[in-house]
Specification:
- 50% of the residues lie in helices and 16% in strands.
- The chain has 324 residues and is an alpha/beta fold.
């Protein structure tokens, strides 16, 4: 029996690129069905993440013309990770496998064939990993490498050079549904689920059309969210730093007492000001990191929905559905 595949594609203000990439996705689905690798019930599931342009209208038009295209629309912009999660949770009970990828055409669609082949061999999660970063600028390439190394140093389990291009079986998704945290960093969460996994290497292309909606600020925010959501090592570093500062301060006190007894003190405000500023800076940074963790705990305790589906292309009633 051929597996039912759902390709999950998050979209935010992508009217310029969807007209180019949707036909590519449709062709890939049809080719896979023709090659008898997947079931005819396979679909492309587009997730409209509160777009302000014609993204949802385009998804609706294609869904009317092609049975392979379906879509859901979130009530507002929830962010890429929440939109992707919404698509995966929507698909988990309707298919055997999902493959998530961006709609900009940068992820090589041909890697889908290799992912399905590995699934047939018994692999539950297949990570799409970039073979090179030739399309990135020197700055982006360098910061990305530092990011993955920093995550590894802080104890966050991730796949190097893997973003959100991956195959996940419905079995894994049903277990993943038990991960109810609000602060999402999916590329670091799926390795926590376990199950047999493998890697497929692919070459990332230039964006087909439009501009990227992931500027440096969002990349930094995602990195920080990944670190603070999946690792408590920054808190351990604060403790270590506090101990080092305490030792340094104790030595400084001993030195000042000895100098005072020897009568070699020299009045001066510069050294005192420097020490106070140094200690004050350390304390503020430490309080800030602790505050970040407290803030995340606050958001988790509130247990607000991670996304709300306001409309479906298949739902004539267009009812609102809350999802956790």
């Amino acid at each position: 029996m051929k597996p039912i595949l759902y390709i999950v594609v998050p979209c935010f203000n992508e009217e310029k690129v969807l007209l180019e990439t949707i036909p590519i996705f449709i062709k890939k689905i049809n080719d896979l069905v023709y090659e008898k690798k997947i079931s005819v019930k396979s679909r492309i599931l587009f997730v409209n993440d509160g777009s302000r342009d014609k993204t949802w209208q385009i998804i609706q038009e294609f869904s009317k013309e092609n049975i392979n295209c379906i879509g859901i629309s979130l009530s507002r912009n929830m962010g890429h990770q929440s939109a992707l999660l919404a698509g995966l949770m929507e698909a988990k009970d309707k298919c055997d496998i999902t493959i998530s990828l961006d709609c900009d055409g940068q992820d090589d669609i041909c890697a889908v064939d290799q992912m399905i082949d590995k699934y047939v061999l018994g692999v539950e999660i297949v990570y799409g990993v970039r073979s090179a970063r030739k399309t990135d600028s020197f700055f982006k390439r360098g910061t990305a490498q530092c990011f993955y190394k920093l995550l590894a140093t802080l104890g966050v389990e991730t796949i190097y050079n893997h973003a959100d291009y991956r195959l996940v079986s419905s079995r894994v998704l049903k277990e993943f549904a038990g991960f109810t945290e609000v602060n999402l960093f999916l590329r670091g969460m799926f390795p926590l689920v376990g199950f047999k996994s493998d890697i497929v290497y692919y070459e990332r292309h230039e964006r087909i059309a439009g501009k990227s909606h992931y500027p440096l600020s969002k990349m930094v925010a995602l990195a920080w969210n990944g670190i603070t959501s999946l690792s408590v090592r920054p808190l351990h570093l604060i403790v270590t730093l506090g101990l080092l500062v305490a030792v340094f301060s104790f030595v400084a006190v001993l030195w000042s007492v000895i100098v005072q007894l020897l009568g070699k003190t020299v009045a001066g405000w510069a050294s005192m000001t420097s020490i106070i500023a140094f200690l004050g800076g350390i304390q503020l940074v430490s309080i800030g990191v602790i505050g970040e963790y407290v803030g995340k705990i606050y958001m988790e305790v509130k247990r607000r929905p991670r996304y709300i589906i306001s409309e479906r292309t298949e739902d004539k009633n267009n009812g609102t559905t809350r999802e956790w």
